[in-house]
């Protein structure tokens, strides 16, 4: 149970389940799906289903590791234990950067959504208010973070279920002005199920993968869950039906009610569908949902960055000051520094054109997938040690491993290749080597100054005293 980490186990089953659901539902569905539909047509449903299977395999691999040893450092700690200190170091810092970048983009996006209702409010002012409020929420207690995340996720879930129920009503009861064109036949009557060919569907895989970024966040909560042995497997096992309902189900209904040809990049398919159904408030509803999705991502970013910096600090791979906890068990300085960087990023985004900032945003995709790669690699090494009798077996084993682990790794490799082919996402592959070089150089500099920092020890250095402020 890793009580020596010093955190308070304030996250209950209800909050863990909604954090898991919220991690799989973000702006990638509410906004990004429009671009993906225009590229692949109805076959996008199949892309989400296939990627959903891969995501489930990744989460089961993480679940096996979590049941072996539930710690807040999660996959960074597992990479350190099973792949070596070098990979633990890179994973911790890369995941921290992923959430800082994501937080910057999401808090900026949230500020822009406010202008839908109040166009006179400066974007920087809204971004500042959101950042400060979420910062203090994360400092007060992990329970408050979990409660806020619960309600953010509830808004997203309610919106999707509402859209599905309304769409079913249109299809079965001929409700609203869209009834005369709504039909399941829309899935194949406008150029077929693969109107852009198999190639068009394949090129949406990176968009689909990005939509699922943050699903692994539930692993970071392991050190603060009241009963991780019970709540985490339950949350992970709900991944298939969550993806089936919220992604496959929602898109199936939307593209049955409205032909896929009426969707385009930059426009939310939910807004388009609400408009065709005859709900004028649809745009405002979706704008509110997307606002909560962006704030949810910012909230999660502040939570995870503070924990990841502290995990690095506990292992001597970040300044010791990040080890400090408040009386309520929250990482003070790690959260503060991350929030400050998010504010700097908002200022940078305000000063420079959005195209320049796209380069930073694109890097979030590849850095997020790095965490998934490390989860799978660590699980493969862990299972090998279990088979040799060197470690106890987890009571939540990944089905079909190690074959399924290698299948998931190969799929991620294919997506990375596709990112290199697509000119819109190729830039993220340019940024990755620069970050990798920085990590390698800093690793060897730290190692030269203090070789013991990266000396591999069983289960890291978590026996260090917890410092509270």
Automatic annotation (TrEMBL):
The chain crosses the membrane at residues 18-37, 43-62, 82-104, 124-145, 157-178, 198-222, 243-261, 281-304, 325-350, 356-378, 399-421, 427-446. It is a multi-pass membrane protein. Signal peptide: none annotated. GO terms for cellular component: plasma membrane. InterPro entries: AA-permease/SLC12A_dom, Amino_acid_permease_CS. One of its GO terms (biological process) is amino acid transport. Keywords: Amino-acid transport, Cell membrane, Membrane, Transmembrane, Transmembrane helix, Transport. Belongs to the amino acid-polyamine-organocation (APC) superfamily. Amino acid transporter (AAT) (TC 2.A.3.1) family. This is Putative proline permease. It comes from Streptantibioticus cattleyicolor (strain ATCC 35852 / DSM 46488 / JCM 4925 / NBRC 14057 / NRRL 8057).
């Amino acid at each position: 149970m890793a009580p020596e980490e010093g955190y308070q186990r304030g996250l209950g089953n209800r909050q863990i389940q909604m954090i898991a659901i919220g991690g799989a539902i973000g702006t990638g569905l509410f906004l990004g799906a429009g671009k993906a539909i225009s590229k692949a047509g109805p076959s996008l449903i199949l892309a989400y289903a296939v990627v959903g299977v891969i995501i489930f395999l990744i989460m089961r691999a993480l679940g096996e590791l979590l049941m072996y040893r539930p710690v807040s450092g999660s996959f960074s700690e597992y990479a350190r234990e099973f792949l070596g200190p070098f990979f633990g170091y890179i994973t911790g810092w890369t995941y921290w950067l992923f959430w800082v970048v994501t937080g910057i983009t999401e808090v900026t996006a949230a500020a822009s959504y406010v202008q839908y209702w109040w166009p006179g409010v400066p974007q920087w002012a809204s971004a500042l208010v959101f950042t400060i409020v979420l910062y203090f929420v994360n400092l007060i207690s992990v329970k408050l973070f979990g409660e806020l995340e619960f309600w953010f996720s509830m808004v997203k879930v309610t919106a999707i279920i509402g859209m599905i129920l309304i769409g079913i009503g249109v299809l079965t009861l001929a409700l609203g002005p869209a009834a005369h064109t709504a039909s399941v036949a829309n899935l194949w009557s406008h150029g077929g199920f693969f109107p852009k060919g198999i190639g068009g569907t394949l090129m949406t895989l990176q968009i689909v993968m990005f939509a699922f970024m943050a699903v692994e966040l539930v692993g970071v909560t392991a050190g603060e869950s009241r009963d991780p042995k019970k709540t985490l497997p339950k949350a992970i096992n709900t991944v298939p039906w969550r993806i089936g309902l919220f992604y496959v189900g929602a898109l199936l209904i939307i593209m049955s009610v409205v032909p896929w040809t009426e969707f385009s990049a930059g426009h939310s398919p939910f807004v388009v569908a609400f408009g065709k159904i005859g709900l004028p408030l649809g745009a405002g509803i979706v704008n509110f949902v997307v606002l909560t999705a962006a704030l949810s991502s910012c909230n999660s970013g502040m939570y995870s960055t503070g924990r990841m910096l502290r995990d690095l600090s506990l292992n001597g791979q970040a300044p010791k000051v990040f080890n400090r906890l408040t009386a309520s068990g929250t990482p003070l300085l790690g959260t503060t520094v991350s929030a400050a960087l998010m504010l700097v990023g908002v200022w940078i985004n305000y000063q420079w054109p959005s195209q320049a900032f796209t380069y930073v945003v694109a890097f979030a995709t590849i850095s997020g997938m790095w965490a998934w790669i490390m989860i799978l690699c660590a699980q493969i090494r862990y299972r090998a040690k279990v088979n040799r009798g060197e470690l106890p077996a987890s009571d939540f084993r990944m089905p079909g491993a190690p074959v399924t682990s290698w299948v998931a790794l190969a799929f991620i490799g294919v997506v990375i290749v596709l990112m290199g082919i697509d000119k819109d996402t190729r830039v993220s592959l340019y940024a990755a080597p620069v970050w990798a070089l920085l990590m390698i150089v800093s690793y060897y500099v730290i190692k030269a100054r203090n070789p013991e920092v990266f000396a591999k020890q069983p289960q890291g250095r978590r026996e260090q005293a917890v410092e509270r402020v």
